[in-house]
Design brief:
single chain, alpha/beta, UDP-n-acetylglucosamine1-carboxyvinyl-transferase, Chain, five-stranded mixed sheet, binds shikimate-3-phosphate
Length: 434
């Protein structure tokens, strides 16, 4: 195991302007959809984190030519809906749940055989949530524990549209079924308990596909062709969230984060932080390839505890580790509920964040679907472990900015999953993270 350990020192002031790397969810979809399109797509702002490189390599392995242009741009030579070819080996999805789940849907309707695997964390995560509805569409997918865990062996087959009501608000489930739906005979309809991120719907429309969105769900007709069209990936709000919280918890801080995606299905962190009394302004609001984008200005403020649950949860699902840090620095108590999904992310994020915050001297109680965090006057230093989860490592680093002494963070190489330049940006704003 790579135990790259880092020490993060407390920070007294922040006054900076930064950018964050491209959105992870949109970057995955940019490769997948442009590969299926007719024609060439130039992509700018693509995130070259490990998760997205897993997706990129998977499509190269299936015969898609992807060129690297100047300025970090990619040129994807789309092969059309039926132009992929069988990969010669197992497709390695690394740590990436999005790669594995979306590709399960995409590969289910091909005319070839595929095997998807990944690292030890991904092989433990639940895949039944996609393999079960895909089987209803006619997919033939074998996997460990009766198809519930990777590796997954997918025997491409003829699919038929279904109407499926997902028990979880998951964009990965919804997107896997939309991708399978492109290959299915007839219409595929997915209902979900709360609206999950809608990047697939927006990008499919960008590529000329008709996707119906209605209260409670989405629907797609099979057989629609995608037409190539250049796109820009905005900065990732899930990466910006670490620095939004950093600025909110450091007294007198002022931080401008430029060019961040603020899609309402992703921007729950802005609403949560504002509820907590954070001073956040959106500037220069605009649209890029169907996605809302803005510059985010955050100033330090006195945060207060809040209760978070219901449809706010899927809109901020990846931000709860750093929300827990904000809660630890807030006056009063924060209750997070309806967030059972946190138990099946890259690690069990409820348990992992409780362990980090307890080391920092914060009183935390956990529940099956969330946690209660009692705000603390002064965080302590110490040693914590990321459990191999990028967002736990980065959240711990943000908490360290408000600790009395340095915090040692073990197993930090995982930040390359979604935010390879995190430590440089942390140093830029605070002089910490050496
Ligand atoms: C993602 C959806 C979310 C999120 C993940 C990325 C996506 O997962 O946690 O980091 O790109 O569709 P779920 O769909 O499982 O909630």
């Amino acid at each position: 195991m790579n135990i790259e350990k880092r020490s993060v020192a407390p920070c007294r002031s922040i006054n900076a302007e930064i950018t964050v790397p491209g959105d992870k969810s949109i970057s995955h979809r940019s490769i997948m959809f442009s590969s299926l399109a007719e024609g060439d797509t130039a992509i700018s702002g693509f995130l070259t984190g490990e998760d997205n490189l897993a997706t990129l390599n998977a499509f190269r392995a299936m015969g898609v030519e992807i060129e690297e242009l100047d300025g970090g741009r990619l040129l994807v030579h789309g092969r059309g809906l039926y132009g992929l070819r069988e990969a010669a080996d197992v497709i390695d999805c690394g740590n990436s749940g999005t790669t594995m789940r979306l590709m399960s849907g995409l590969l289910a309707g091909q005319k070839f055989f595929s095997v998807l695997s990944g690292d030890k964390y991904l092989r433990r995560r639940p895949m039944g949530r996609v393999t079960a509805p895909l089987a209803q569409m006619g997919a033939v997918i074998h996997g460990r524990e009766g198809g519930k865990c990777a590796p997954l062996a997918i025997v491409g087959s003829a699919l038929g549209g279904i109407t499926y009501t997902s028990p979880v608000a998951s964009a990965q489930v919804k997107s896997a079924l939309l991708l399978a739906g492109l290959y299915a005979d007839g219409k595929t309809t997915v209902y979900e308990p709360h609206l999950s991120r809608d990047h697939s719907e927006r990008m499919l429309r960008h590529f000329g596909v008709q996707v119906e969105s209605f209260d409670g769900g989405v629907a797609i007709e099979g057989g629609q062709q995608l037409r190539a069209r250049d796109l820009q990936v905005p900065g990732d709000i899930s990466s910006a969230a670490f620095f939004m919280v950093a600025a909110a918890i450091v007294p007198g801080a002022q931080l401008l984060i430029k060019n961040v995606g603020v899609n309402p299905t992703r921007a729950g962190i802005i609403d949560i932080m504002r509820l907590m009394n954070a001073d956040i302004a959106l500037e220069n609001e605009r649209e890029m390839a169907g996605e809302p984008v803005a510059d985010i200005l955050v100033r330090g403020s006195d945060l207060r505890g809040v209760t978070i649950g219901g449809d706010m949860v899927p809109r901020a699902i990846d931000e709860f580790p750093v929300v827990a840090v904000a809660a630890a620095c807030a006056a009063g108590t924060t209750v997070i509920r309806d967030a059972r999904e946190l138990r099946v992310k890259e690690t069990d994020r409820i348990a992992a964040m409780a362990a980090v915050l307890e080391t920092l001297g914060v009183t935390v109680t956990t529940a099956d679907d969330g946690m209660t965090i009692h705000g603390c006057e002064q965080l302590r230093g110490g040693t914590v472990n990321s459990c191999g989860d990028h967002r736990i490592a980065m959240s711990a680093a943000i908490a360290a900015l408000r600790a009395a002494e340095a915090l040692e963070i073990e197993d930090t190489a995982c930040t390359a999953t979604s935010f390879p330049s995190f430590w440089e940006t942390l140093t830029q704003i605070s002089g910490s993270g050496e």
